Amino acid sequence: MKTSLDHELLKAIYKEMQELKKAIQVKDERRVGRYEFAKLLNIEPETLDARIRDSRYIKPYKDGRKSFWLHSYVQSVILDVELENKVA
Questions:
Q1: Dihedrals φ, ψ of 52, to 5°?
Q2: Dist. CA 9–CA 25, nearest whole Å
Q3: 45, 38 Cβ separation under 8 angstroms
């Protein structure tokens, strides 16, 4: 019985550590606005808006009136676009 309790405790600690790890990564990550995102993709902001409406890209997060994406997401989109261009 003690080993089962120890196992559950270790699982709970592991889960909490994973959540903390994710929170730290998000906290250190910078925000990318609409114009910068469009510029990195070499498209107009209106084209970016259309792609968001088509669910090609995720909707931005909101912080009051400010809209933003996390830098890691923007980088993943850019890498996907580059891979598509190389295949074509």
A1: -70, -45
A2: 25
A3: yes
DSSP 8-state symbol, 54 = T
pLDDT in tens, 12-59: 999 998 888 777 765 668 999 999 999 999 999 999 999 999 999 999
Q: Please state whether the predicted TM-score (pTM) of the whole model is above 0.90.
A: no
Q: pLDDT per residue over 60-84, tens digit each?
A: 999 999 999 999 899 999 988 777 7
Torsion angle in degrees (nearest 10) through CA of 12, 15, 20, 22:
-170
Find, among 80, 74, 70, 67, the residue nearest to 22 by Cα: 70
Write the burial class of residue 40 (CB in 10 Å: 0-12 exposed, 13-18 middle, 19+ buried). Answer: middle
- Where does residue 87 rank: exposed (0-12), middle (13-18), buried (19+ CB within 10 A)? exposed
